[in-house]
């Protein structure tokens, strides 16, 4: 298998890219509640043909998920795992992301507070408590019985919260949309399935060709399904979730670039291969823009391809600074987010739910607009990073 030419190790440049992306994600999520800020610091509406740097944050995270796939797969193969075993791990991890994503969506909107036995802030805190119980990385010295009991307690708590939930239409929880984590889960599953199949290639170049072809195939599938009307429930579900295919294309593109950079069999061709990646993704983005508007909300092919192009350029610069030039001291700033990204992502929601339950506003009104709001959002993001660093040192780490 050509993938075995990639060493199972952590790569600082990827960790830095991940840390920058998570920090930016927390910043823009907080900034979303601030008014009177420049339009380029907000998501563009779905029907506006264009994108801001904010519209690049989510695809950057998808791209990084893809960049990590070759190393995670190599680590499991080196430990003796089989491809079916790795696929089962991917399936469980994907389902975990989808479950957390759906619970997060329902905690934010669609609920009927008056019909619920708990305030939504208390429900939300208990939900995140269950997430920590289930997916926390327990100390190695902890007994298997204790960790299993805690995880089962978390599962029971999630089931109870699902039963207590009441939606605005009188029903129970539903995937109003999959949430950011759920969308990542779907894309990770689709891309990983293709990546594992591509490991049967007889050479690294064939492996790369399969990955590149799959990226194009997912983009083409988006166009194809967008032109189909069907009464079939199964096909209707696939069409309704068509954006999963462009998301999967971004993840696979990350896996492809990671392979081009770090597969030992391709090291002699690295510079030309990465240059070709940038040129081809840029040209495809421009070509698709002629027939598909750029829209992050609709996850259009042009948005996906421009995202792939920009992510490739940003990572290449990061690689040059960190791996080539050896400028690593500044990287420590992003270490907490790189080591514990899921905790950084959910921590703001936990804190907001906690202060809401206490009946206070976590953001003073003076910071609700303008430059003060921008400064608050940036400081908020760094505070979340600092708290995550402290919790990580204390042994609180989420690992799916």
Describe the structure.
Helices cover 66% and strands 0% of the residues. The chain is built from 14 helices and no strands. It has helices at 12-31, 57-78, 83-108, 120-135, 144-164, 179-198, 204-226, 233-240, 243-262, 270-289, 301-324, 335-339, 341-357, 370-393. α3 runs antiparallel to α6 (179-198). The protein is globular, with a radius of gyration of 21 Å. The two termini are 26 Å apart. The model has no long low-confidence stretch (mean pLDDT 92).
Low-confidence stretches: none
Helix content: 55-70%
Proportion of residues in extended strands: under 5%
> Helical region count?
14
**Average pLDDT metric:** 92
Q: What is the rounded Rg?
A: 21 Å
Helix/sheet category: mainly alpha
User: What about the largest sheet?
Assistant: none
Question: Could you give the order of the helices and strands?
Answer: HHHHHHHHHHHHHH
Descriptive labels:
400 residues; 0% strand; mainly alpha; 66% helix
Layout of SSEs?
Elements: H1 12-31, H2 57-78, H3 83-108, H4 120-135, H5 144-164, H6 179-198, H7 204-226, H8 233-240, H9 243-262, H10 270-289, H11 301-324, H12 335-339, H13 341-357, H14 370-393
Helix pairs in contact: 1-2, 1-11, 1-13, 1-14, 2-6, 2-9, 3-4, 3-6, 4-5, 4-13, 6-9, 7-9, 9-10, 9-11, 10-11
Overview in brief:
The chain is mainly alpha-helical and 400 residues long.
């Amino acid at each position: 298998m050509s993938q075995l030419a990639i060493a199972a190790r952590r790569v600082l440049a990827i960790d830095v890219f991940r840390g920058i992306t998570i920090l930016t994600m927390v910043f823009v999520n907080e900034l979303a509640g601030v008014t009177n800020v420049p339009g380029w610091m907000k998501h563009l509406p779905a029907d506006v043909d264009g994108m801001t740097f904010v519209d690049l944050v989510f695809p950057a995270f998808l791209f990084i998920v893809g960049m990590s796939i070759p190393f995670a797969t190599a680590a499991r193969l080196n430990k003796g795992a089989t491809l079916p075993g790795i696929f089962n791990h991917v399936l469980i991890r994907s389902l975990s992301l989808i479950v957390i994503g759906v619970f997060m969506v329902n905690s934010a909107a669609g609920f009927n507070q008056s019909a619920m036995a708990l305030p939504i802030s208390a429900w939300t805190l208990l939900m995140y408590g269950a997430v920590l119980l289930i997916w926390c990385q327990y100390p190695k010295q902890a007994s298997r019985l204790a960790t299993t009991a805690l995880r089962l307690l978390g599962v029971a708590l999630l089931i109870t919260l699902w039963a207590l939930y009441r939606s605005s239409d009188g029903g129970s929880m539903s995937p109003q949309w999959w949430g950011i984590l759920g969308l990542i889960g779907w894309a990770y599953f689709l891309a990983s399935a293709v990546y594992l199949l591509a490991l049967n290639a007889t050479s690294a170049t064939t492996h790369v060709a399969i990955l590149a072809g799959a990226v194009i195939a997912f983009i083409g599938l988006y166009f194809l399904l967008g032109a189909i009307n069907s009464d079939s429930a199964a096909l209707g579900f696939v069409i309704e979730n068509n954006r999963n295919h462009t998301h999967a294309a971004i993840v696979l593109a990350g896996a492809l670039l990671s392979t081009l950079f770090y597969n030992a069999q391709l090291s002699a061709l690295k510079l030309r291969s990465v240059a070709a990646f940038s040129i081809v993704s840029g040209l495809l983005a421009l070509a698709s823009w002629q027939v598909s508007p750029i829209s992050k909300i609709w996850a259009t092919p042009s948005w996906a391809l421009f995202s792939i192009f920009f992510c490739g350029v940003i990572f290449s610069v990061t690689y040059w600074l960190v791996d080539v030039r050896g400028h690593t001291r500044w990287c420590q700033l992003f270490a907490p987010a790189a080591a514990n990204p899921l905790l950084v992502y959910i921590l703001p929601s936990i804190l907001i739910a906690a202060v809401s339950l206490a009946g206070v506003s976590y953001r003073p009104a003076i910071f609700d607009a303008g430059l003060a709001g921008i400064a608050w959002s940036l400081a908020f993001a760094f505070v979340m990073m600092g708290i995550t660093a402290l919790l990580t040192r204390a042994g609180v780490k989420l690992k799916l």
